[in-house]
TrEMBL record:
<keyword id="KW-0813">Transport</keyword>
<dbReference type="GO" id="GO:0005737">
    <property type="term" value="C:cytoplasm"/>
</dbReference>
<keyword id="KW-0418">Kinase</keyword>
<dbReference type="GO" id="GO:0016301">
    <property type="term" value="F:kinase activity"/>
</dbReference>
<feature type="domain" description="PTS EIIB type-4">
    <location>
        <begin position="1"/>
        <end position="169"/>
    </location>
</feature>
<dbReference type="GO" id="GO:0008982">
    <property type="term" value="F:protein-N(PI)-phosphohistidine-sugar phosphotransferase activity"/>
</dbReference>
<dbReference type="Pfam" id="PF03830">
    <property type="entry name" value="PTSIIB_sorb"/>
</dbReference>
<keyword id="KW-0963">Cytoplasm</keyword>
<keyword id="KW-0808">Transferase</keyword>
<dbReference type="InterPro" id="IPR004720">
    <property type="entry name" value="PTS_IIB_sorbose-sp"/>
</dbReference>
<dbReference type="InterPro" id="IPR036667">
    <property type="entry name" value="PTS_IIB_sorbose-sp_sf"/>
</dbReference>
<keyword id="KW-0762">Sugar transport</keyword>
<keyword id="KW-0598">Phosphotransferase system</keyword>
<protein>
    <submittedName>
        <fullName>Putative fructose-specific phosphotransferase enzyme IIB component</fullName>
    </submittedName>
</protein>
<dbReference type="GO" id="GO:0009401">
    <property type="term" value="P:phosphoenolpyruvate-dependent sugar phosphotransferase system"/>
</dbReference>
Length: 170
């Protein structure tokens, strides 16, 4: 048996109001796992994240490798997890490490715009590198990767959108 992942979400803002209210109510986790090598090393960010968890839900901040180990550790089988990463690359590393997202797919909530990126939805920015990572999650791991800000929003197939925007997937 392994940890029950109820939502796997990429959100550059990590744990914030939409996640703490809408998504937590929707998936009813008993644990929020924020998976980020950089945040795991930053005590201030780690403290802030663990403090904004909604009542009754404990939040942890761990590195990618620690999350992979925890996923396969029977001591964490009781976790009903809402899993958050800041970027698609960390989610891909988790999949490569054997974390099974086949039951939930990957939800892309927000990817912040930086220089050289293209906005493909009102909340998701993409460049060729990130588009290739999305394609790997879909093609190599056979996962549904969708953009969706809150549960009430319609899911948008991200790879179809990427292909329409002519990103270089080679």
């Amino acid at each position: 048996m392994t940890m029950d992942i109820r939502l796997a979400r990429v959100d550059s803002r990590l744990l914030h109001g939409q996640v703490a209210t809408f998504w937590t109510r929707f998936v009813q986790p008993n644990r929020i796992m924020v998976v980020s090598d950089s945040v795991a090393k930053d005590n201030l960010r780690k403290t802030l994240i663990t403090q904004v968890a909604p009542p009754g839900v404990k939040a942890n901040v761990v590195s990618v490798n620690k999350m992979i180990r925890a996923y396969f550790d029977s001591r964490f089988d009781s976790f009903n997890t809402l899993l958050l990463t800041e970027n698609v690359g960390d989610m891909l590393r988790l999949a490569e490490g054997g974390v099974d997202f086949s039951q939930v797919g990957i939800n892309i909530g927000s990817i912040a715009y930086t220089e050289g990126m293209t906005m493909i939805t009102d909340a998701v920015a993409m460049d060729d590198h990130t588009a290739k990572q999305v394609a790997a999650l879909v093609n190599d791991f056979h996962l549904d990767v969708t953009a969706q800000k809150i549960p009430a929003d319609k899911k948008i197939d991200l790879l179809s959108l990427i292909k329409k925007k002519n990103f270089n997937l080679e």
